[in-house]
Amino acid sequence: MTFTLALFRKRLRFNEGATVMACVAIIALQMLAGSLRYGHINDNAYMAAFAVFVPALWGIPVLVLIRGSWRKAVFVMMLFMNLSGTIAIIGNAMGRWLLPVGVCLPYNWQYLLMIALTGVILIGVLYVLFGGILLELFRFGDADHIWRYLWLVPAGFSLIALWMRFGTTEPEYISTAKPANFLFLMVLFATKLGTYLIVGKIVLVQRQRNELQIVNRQFELHERAYRIYQERDETERRLRHDFRHQLAVLSTLAGEGEFEELRGYLDKMVRSIPLRARNRLASDPELDALLQYYAYEAEHVGVRFSSRIEAPVEQYVKSVDLTVVLGNLLENAVQAAGCGAGERYIDLHVGKVSDVCMIVVRNSYDGPVAERNDGFLSAKHEGMGMGLESVRLTVQRLHGECSVKHDGHVFTVRISLPV
Q1: What would you report as the CA-atom Rg of the chain, rounded to the nearest whole angstrom?
Q2: Is 178 among the domain residues?
Q3: pLDDT in tens, 137-158
Q4: pTM of this prediction?
Q5: What's the rounded Cα separation, in Å, for the pair 83 and 243?
Q6: Residue 398 and residue 322 share a domain
Q7: Across-strand partners of 418?
């Protein structure tokens, strides 16, 4: 329980004081339930039932204490439960092999001391060898769909281990200490460890691919924004070049007193000037490139795009994270507003309240919004949408808050990020 909560310490539902008090209550309840084992250690069916009941007794409350993907939390808890079961098996076997007969009895102090020493040594060795992978694996929040079925891996190993420990006629503490059974359980533990490492590598590789896609997306946005700049610069250069000739014509007409022709020529010049000139949408070049691109995309589908940047957003979020947050929000907004009827618009406002950066994106839309399990179904493909899920995970990692509201015509996403 301690290891699980330590890994998810940045995603606790309550403050530290309330979490500690809850843990004390859970431990007291678990100890009370565990004491019911005494007098039944030779009854494998009874002990097997408690081997399931006692972890569930603390596992379910711990799930309540953690925000985010419950499947990921279950994976972590079962991983540590598998480890604790292995420690109990090794500690019991070492005690029965190394201590005189009748000294290391189940639940006496020698037995518990041997298990404690085994746990310290085994956890220390595993942390030195594989701790870096484990910490990296759970450092960031992942989308719930990544862990949708992975938690079944430790669940399956737990069932196999329960059958090996309690599926015999002999008491568990005797059968697991026999060399043949002990060797099989250690092979099972090595298999579990290898499987967890493979799962960890797969998740880390997938996360790296996602980060690479974000970087590539950011580069693509910069490239497209640069092309927009080039097009508008070319238009401005052409206007400046033509303007010199136009001034010469105006000077000639004015000098000859051809005022009617002069007035007509001026009208033609006014009509030839583009209605929209290029202007910077943000002082930060990363943010400006992002906004220029989506303003251009919105214009092409007939959506009014407006933005107010009143806070230096670069002080609150890195450019890569900014691409994830605003890129996904504006992409969804352009698609939703572009498919609507009537007034179609996107409004972006970035402001500052105390030491908190507030980002609000509002867009028009028509039709129902499909929701499921606190998420939104995608309008582009079957299944859950990834855009808002990525935004929520990124904001969560930055210790911010994200809220979504919709009323059938206006979709609003409000994000707050601490400095």
Answers
A1: 32
A2: yes
A3: 877 766 667 787 888 888 899 8
A4: 0.64
A5: 78
A6: yes
A7: 356
User: Quick one: tokens of 303?
Assistant: 């959506």
- Do the strands 401-406 and 345-353 form a parallel or antiparallel pair, or are they unpaired? unpaired
Those residues whose C-beta lies under 8 Å from the C-beta of residue 44, and which sit 6 or more positions away, are 166, 167, 168, 169, 171, 172
Q: Are residues 194 and 288 in the same domain?
A: no
Cβ 290 vs Cβ 323: under 8 Å: yes
Domain count, the chain: 2
Residue 200 neighbours by CB under 8 Å, 6+ apart = 133, 134, 137
C-beta separation of 172 from 99 below 8 A: no
Statement: residue 190 has pLDDT above 90: yes
Around 102, how many Cα atoms within 13 Å sit in the side-chain half-sphere? Answer: 0
Confidence of residue 118 (pLDDT cuts 50, 70, 90): very high
- Name residue 51's amino acid: A
Count H helices and E strands in the chain, helices first.
12, 7
Inside any domain, residue 259: no
**Is 267 within a domain?**
no
Which CATH number fits the domain that encloses residue 301? Answer: 3.30.565.10
Domain that holds residue 402: 280-419
* End residue of a domain, out of 214, 240, 272: 214
- The verdict on residue 395 lying in a domain is yes
Which pLDDT does position 379 carry in this prediction? 52
**Integer distance in angstroms from the first to the last C-alpha of the chain?**
32
Using alpha carbons only, what angle is made at residue 136 by residues 131 and 142, rounded to the nearest 5 degrees?
135
Q: Are 147 and 200 in contact (CB under 8 A)?
A: no
pLDDT, average across residues 4-31: 88
